[in-house]
Each structure stands twice: as C-alpha cells, then as structure tokens.
Write a structure and sequence with these properties.
Blueprint (H helix, E strand, L loop, with lengths): L2 E5 L4 H12 L3 E6 L2 H10 L3 E5 L9 H8 L7 E4 L14 H29 L2 E6 L12 H19 L5 E6 L3 E2 L3 H5 L11 E2 L1 H13 L4 E2 L3 H12 L2 H12 L5
Parallel strand pairs: 1-2, 1-4, 2-3, 4-5, 5-6, 6-9, 7-8
Helix pairs in contact: 1-7, 3-4, 4-5
C-alpha cells in the first residue's frame, strides 16, 4: 500500500487530497497545526497517521522532515499544501508576518521536498505535488504571496527537469479561487469575486491527480483559468501589471 504525506490537511484542498487519496488506497500521514481537527480526520479515514506541526516554525518541521527521511516507512507521494495568504500592503505589513508567510509558503516547501526526494530517487519512484496558485503565474501588487507562489512554480519546474528519467515526478498545482477557509483565515474580503471564478476543492484535486498521472509539470484546474493564464501571456506584460494593480487594491500581501 503506498503512503502519502499531506500538509495543511485539515481543511480545503488539503482535506480534499486526504479524502481522495484514502479512496485511492493510500496510507496517509496528515500534517497540520490543529490537533483536534487532525484527530477528527483520523477517526473518519482508514489507516491515518497524524503529525501536529506548525510548519512556519523551523524547529517544529523537524518531525515531518524525519518522517519523510525514514527509510523503513517510505513516503510515495508528498503533497505540500500548507500555505498562508495575507491582507495589506507590503510596506505597511509587519516584517514578522511577511517572514512567517515565506517560512511556510517557501522554506517549508523546500525543506520537505528536499527531505523526500533522495529516498524517491533511490527507489526510482515517487511524486511531489506542490500547491502553488494561479497567482504565481501572473504579476502581483506589492505581493509576497504572489512571489512565494511564483517561487514554488519555478522550483517545481526546475526539479521536474532535473528528475527526468528517474521515475520521480514533481507537479506544481496552480488553482484559482477555491471554496475553502483560505481567504477568511487571511482576512481577505472576496465578496467582489463572481461565482464563475470559484472552484470546488474536490475537482481541483481530481484534476491535479489526473495531470500527475499524465506527467504534467504545471496543473491549472478548469478551462476558464487555463484560458485566463494563456491570455495573460499573450497580452503585453504592462497590461497584466495594470490589471494586477487594480485587483490588488482588494488586496493580499
């Protein structure tokens, strides 16, 4: 039975991954800060191991790193889903908040992926799904969130190139707006966004796993977001920056 480790597993895309992978026959290692919600998932799903960890804190990532490096309990699929957005301008947001955001969105992704890949390469099989965002494919507005997700996309593409022929795959998942707790937790008012732009977490996971099976490197769920990203690459960069600046007024860090 294969094993999948999912971070940020108690809500939204992470919980959708946990439920879908359980249906697909994976043994699960679920990671999140909320011990009570992790325990509820353990009761709901079969064959679940839980690790309570705040991945924005380097010392608290250690147990997750060690679990990924355990040669006697190999992890076949790593889903780096944990992440945080934010509201406010870069120049007025406390530095500590920006630092914590990058610790979670960037450094934790790097450290956990770095821990998982040697064993996968040695076994000649395995996969990493890094949950980025469609925001990482377009310009932001004073935005460390956008920058962090652009970094995740670039890392995933680079690793995918480097791992070609090894049997190990890396996928950057770039959803648009998804019905989860993400925006509410970040304090972002999304009342302006039309329903047409919203996706369901389960369908995002289904498309990600489908793209992983066909060896895609970047997964953009839904035709409408694929169209938006393609259009943004065809118009002048100055225009995409203008649109990002207007939308960014609603804004996130």
């Amino acid at each position: 039975m294969p094993t999948a480790l999912v971070t940020g597993a108690t809500a939204g895309i992470g919980a959708a991954f946990a439920r879908r992978l359980a249906q697909d026959g994976y043994r699960l290692v679920l990671v999140a800060r909320d011990a009570e919600r992790l325990e509820a998932l353990r009761q709901e799903l079969p064959d679940v191991e839980v690790l309570v960890a705040d991945l924005a804190r380097p010392q608290r990532r250690r147990a997750v790193v060690e679990r990924l490096q355990d040669p006697d309990r190999p992890v076949d699929l790593l889903v780096n889903n944990a992440g945080v957005g934010g509201q406010g301008e870069f120049w007025s947001t406390p530095y500590g908040r920006l630092h914590d955001q990058l610790e979670l969105n960037v450094t934790a992704v790097m450290e956990l992926t770095h821990a998982a890949l040697p064993g996968m390469r040695q076994r000649g099989a395995g996969a990493v799904i890094n949950v980025a965002s469609v925001a990482g494919l377009t310009p932001g507005r004073g935005s460390t969130y956008t920058a962090s997700k652009a970094w995740v996309v670039a890392l995933s593409e680079g690793l995918s190139n480097g791992l070609r022929g090894t049997g190990v795959r890396v996928l950057a998942l770039c959803p648009g707006f998804v019905h989860t707790e993400f925006h509410a937790r970040a304090g972002i008012d999304m009342a302006w966004a039309p329903e047409l732009l919203w996706l369901d977490a389960g369908s995002v996971v289904d498309e990600a796993l489908k793209d992983l099976r066909r060896d895609a490197v970047v997964s953009i769920p839904s035709l409408r977001y694929k169209t938006l990203v393609t259009a943004s690459r065809l118009v002048p960069r100055s225009l995409t920056r203008f649109v990002a600046a207007r939308l960014g007024g609603r804004s996130r860090t």
